[in-house]
């Protein structure tokens, strides 16, 4: 009987073991060069008993801290002396890929929103805050996203671990159950490696279709009213399409993951609304657009594929255990 190698396979690139302990002693790094703003944010988040807050006044200080501390959420101002907030997010995500990042700015523009999300931000806050509780809510939402991502990863790995232990132990079981479990375990491992399995549909951008096809995705361009959209694993919607908001809201209620593709001329209010709706946002028309969109789609397909493989593996594991109970 072969021994599974699943423990060497990451669920999400860059997320190592021991990360993601949820909101228990979660660490928040605040970066702002305005002492008054930093003090207000520290006072607000410092009231949360389960948060450890690290306030610094520059990106350079933040990077020094990131080398020594695991950070769960980075909250940074866009305009900083020296390295700016967008560059800081990009570097922080390179150093700690599991980190969630939130951008704060008093000078919002479509270009800055797109740049922040291209760098790895998952949320955006305008200042001055109309309500200070907005910051706390955004940090909590970021922690929930991180916790859910790690919980899903760990759940999948635990099911695979249990399957491997049973198979390696050589427990007596009917041959069909044994073969089914080993097959699904192998499928799970292959799914982690083959991250581009799944269907992708694009609405409103022939250029996005070209980019994704060059990246070897199974992709098709469809009109916004096509019923085929509901069957796609990932739907990319361009903000230039006049029906993008209605379409995105409808698809979010279904089984598809929705990626909003925003050009440099995208309306700022549309982008902020998309963020509020928790859509995945990808900027287009930039030099790195051919990298950002495929990476986002690849990660969404990877998560969906592993979730499906986990469900099949769980079913095979249950059947294997039942067969052991019957023959015992």
TrEMBL record:
UniProt keyword annotations, A-Z: DNA-binding, Phosphoprotein, Transcription, Transcription regulation, Two-component regulatory system
Domain Response regulatory: 27-142
Any one Pfam family match given in the protein's UniProt record, by short name: Response_reg
Taxonomy of the source species: Bacteria, Pseudomonadati, Myxococcota, Myxococcia, Myxococcales
Residues modified as 4-aspartylphosphate: 77
PANTHER family in UniProt: REGULATOR OF RPOS (PTHR48111), TWO-COMPONENT RESPONSE REGULATOR ORR33 (PTHR48111:SF1)
Keyword Mitochondrion set for record: no
GO cellular component terms listed in the entry, alphabetical order: cytosol; protein-DNA complex
Annotated GO biological process: regulation of DNA-templated transcription
MF annotations from Gene Ontology: phosphorelay response regulator activity; transcription cis-regulatory region binding
InterPro entries according to UniProt: CheY-like_superfamily (IPR011006), Sig_transdc_resp-reg_receiver (IPR001789), WalR-like (IPR039420)
Protein's name according to its UniProt entry: Response regulator
């Amino acid at each position: 009987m072969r021994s599974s190698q699943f423990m060497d396979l990451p669920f999400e690139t860059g997320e190592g073991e021991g990360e993601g302990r949820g909101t228990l002693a979660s660490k928040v790094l605040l970066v702002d060069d305005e002492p008054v703003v930093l003090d207000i944010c520290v006072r607000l988040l410092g009231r949360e008993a389960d948060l450890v807050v690290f306030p610094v006044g520059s990106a350079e200080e933040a990077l020094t801290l990131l080398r020594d501390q695991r950070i769960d959420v980075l909250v940074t101002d866009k305009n900083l002396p020296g390295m700016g907030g967008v560059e800081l997010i990009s570097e922080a995500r390179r150093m700690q890929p599991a980190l969630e990042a939130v951008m704060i700015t008093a000078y919002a523009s479509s270009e800055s929103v797109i740049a922040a999300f291209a760098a790895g931000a998952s949320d955006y806050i305008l200042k001055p805050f109309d309500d200070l509780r907005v910051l706390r809510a955004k940090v909590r939402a970021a922690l929930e996203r991180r916790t859910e991502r790690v919980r899903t990863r760990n759940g999948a790995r635990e099911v695979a671990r249990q399957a491997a232990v049973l198979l390696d132990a050589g427990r007596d079981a009917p041959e069909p159950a044994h073969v089914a479990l080993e097959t699904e375990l192998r499928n799970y491992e292959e799914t982690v490696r083959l991250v581009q399995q799944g269907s992708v549909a694009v609405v409103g951008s022939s250029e996005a279709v070209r980019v994704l096809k060059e990246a070897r995705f199974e992709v098709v361009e469809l009109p916004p009213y096509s019923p085929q959209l509901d069957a796609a694993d990932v739907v990319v919607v361009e903000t230039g399409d006049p029906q993008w908001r209605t379409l995105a809201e409808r698809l979010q209620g279904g089984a598809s993951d929705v990626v909003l593709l925003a050009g440099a001329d995208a309306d700022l209010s549309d982008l902020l609304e998309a963020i509020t709706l928790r859509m995945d946002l990808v900027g287009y028309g930039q030099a790195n657009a051919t990298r950002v969109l495929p990476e986002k789609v690849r990660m969404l397909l990877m998560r969906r594929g592993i979730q499906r493989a986990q469900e099949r593996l769980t079913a095979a594991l249950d059947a294997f255990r039942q067969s052991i109970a019957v023959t015992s």
